[in-house]
Write a structure and sequence with these properties.
The protein is mainly β. It has a single domain, classed as Immunoglobulin-like (Sandwich). It contains 2 helices and 11 strands. It has helices spanning 68-72, 115-118; strands at residues 6-16, 19-27, 35-36, 40-47, 50-52, 57-61, 64-66, 78-79, 85-90, 98-108, 136-145. The strands form 3 sheets. Strands 1-2-9-6-7 form a 5-stranded antiparallel sheet. The protein has a 4-stranded antiparallel sheet with strand order 5-4-10-11. The chain has a two-stranded antiparallel ribbon with strand order 3-8. The chain starts with 5 loop residues before the first strand and ends with a strand. The model has no long low-confidence stretch (mean pLDDT 89).
């Protein structure tokens, strides 16, 4: 995996039955312990300024897909630091060929962080208190679809 949270490998359009129905990207977890899906707090994805809400993104771990609602109560599925997650976004026609600016943030809760510090986490806003390794970071990257 790459050092960047948003991975360059895996950024492509999704084709179903010969039609482009969306696009996908991969992200890695910048936390050494891994997390359970119920700890994850997904944010809003921006691609070239276009907004995709967390409810419109399907997360895939080891080939199994999860909606935002499903992840909120899943305390059994573990996201390992060595396994990137695939984020799938429905968008008729997908993304055009060429470079795209991506911005995406997510955060997660930790058992050793006081709840009062975690209740105000906003995955869409960079926080100057928390480091990426402790559950928060907004990531930006320019990637190519060919």
């Amino acid at each position: 995996m790459e050092r960047e949270v948003i991975q360059s490998v895996g950024f492509r359009n999704i084709v179903e039955n010969g039609k482009v129905v969306g696009f996908q990207l991969k992200v890695r977890l910048p936390y050494y312990r891994g997390i359970f899906l119920s700890q994850l707090r997904p944010g809003t994805l921006f691609v070239d300024g276009e907004k995709f809400e967390k409810e419109d993104i399907v997360w895939s771990f080891k080939g199994e897909d999860f909606t935002y609602e499903e992840m909120k109560s899943d305390f059994k599925t573990h996201w390992s630091v060595t396994e990137p997650a695939v984020l799938k976004v429905k968008k008729q026609g997908g993304l055009s060929q060429g470079y795209h600016n991506l911005k995406y943030g997510f955060c997660f809760t930790s058992s050793y962080m006081p709840p009062i510090m975690q209740e105000h986490l906003d995955p869409d806003q960079e926080s100057f208190i928390f480091l990426p390794e402790f559950g928060h970071h907004v990531n930006e990257r320019k990637l190519l679809i060919v």
